[in-house]
Amino acid sequence: MSNASNPKAGGSEGRRYSYAQLDVFTERPLEGNALAVFTDARGLSDAEMQAVARETRLSETTFVFPRDPAVEREHGVRVRIFTTEEELPFAGHPTLGTAFALRGRSGASEIVLDLEAGRIPVEFTAEGGGHVFAEMRQVDPEFGAEHEREAIAGLAGLEVEDIATDLPIQTVSTGLAFAIVPVKTRKALEKLALDWKRVAEYTERTDAKFLYFMTRECVDAKARMHARMIFYNGEDPATGSAAGCAAAWMVAHGVAQADERVLIEQGMEALRPSRLFVRAGKEGDSVVNVRVGGHAVEVMRGELFL
Is 124 left (phi over 0), alpha (psi -120 to 50) or beta? Predict the structure, then answer.
């Protein structure tokens, strides 16, 4: 993929930044989670990146800052991630999608990204039919507080009885902290109605950044979990950062075996079906080696003029 042409500010032609838009965690265009990737963001200020992210109106937009090849070999490709409201240290579908965009048609087996949360490797495997599967290794999980069912139910428009009792509501972070909320049925999950003001107040005083709701009742018989994540930017069709936390949570609490790859389905309610493949290992009592994988398709290219 070619880098952007970005003349210095003040030139008669202004600045031009190339971008690609990809649908991530899907093999089919117009499904999965959309992502805009600016492949050479040098010259953009923090305020401009935030404004561009608001302009795209996608859940996240990423900005790549090319560096000397020797530096990139040692530290990875520098990438920053923005939602419409803030910069994030890590997010899953932007990491996977940006790696796909940088790989292009090169056939590279690995792309390493240097994010605010640290160095994240993404490995690629060729599949039949021209498809390519990518898997990122996230930082080892940190397990945080357990949350009361009554408190979460009140925030989400659920009855307390809708939330499972055999699994904990627990905060997990692999770079971004999510409270994993087990819900008994898909019917209950479909009626989620988050009071975002109250959710924001709750997360401000707890160790969770967002809430990730899951049920073992799935649409696809091959899936282990059906998930939803609703935040200030609306319904997220696929949340790779939360899926990594969920992988660690599932292994810790016996929903999945160590190193077992399982499918999380998400995005059905947003009419953007997504498939996230997750696994995590164990060393003694610790959950380690969290991996989240999937596919991506490029659907659009363009230029931004400033």
Answer: beta
Distance CA 281, CA 143 (A): 15
Locate tokens 């930082």: which residue? Answer: 139
Q: Are 16-138+295-305 and 142-289 in the same CATH fold?
A: yes
Domain spans of the chain?
Answer: 16-138+295-305, 142-289
For 213-255, write each residue's pLDDT tens digit.
999 999 999 999 999 999 999 999 999 999 999 999 999 999 9
Token pair of 221 as six digits: 């018989």
For the residues of 272-298, what is the DSSP string, one character each?
A: --EEEEEEEEEETTEEEEEEEEE-EEE
Q: Find the farthest-apart pair of alpha carbons in the chain and give their distance in angstroms, rounded.
A: 64
Contact 252, 2 (CB under 8 A): no
CATH class of the domain at 142-289: alpha beta
Provide the Cα torsion 37, 38, 40, 44; round to 10°: -140
Q: Which CATH superfamily is domain 16-138+295-305 in?
A: Diaminopimelate Epimerase; Chain A, domain 1 (3.10.310.10)
Can you tell me the mean pLDDT for 82-87?
97
Q: Look up the pTM and report it.
A: 0.93
**Section 32-42 average pLDDT:** 98
Q: What's residue 8's pLDDT?
A: 44
pLDDT at residue 130 in the model: 83
Annotated catalytic residue within 27, 48, 55, 60: 60
Alpha-helical segments (H) within 64-219: 69-75, 92-103, 149-156, 186-190, 196-204
Q: Is 60 among the residues known to form the active site?
A: yes
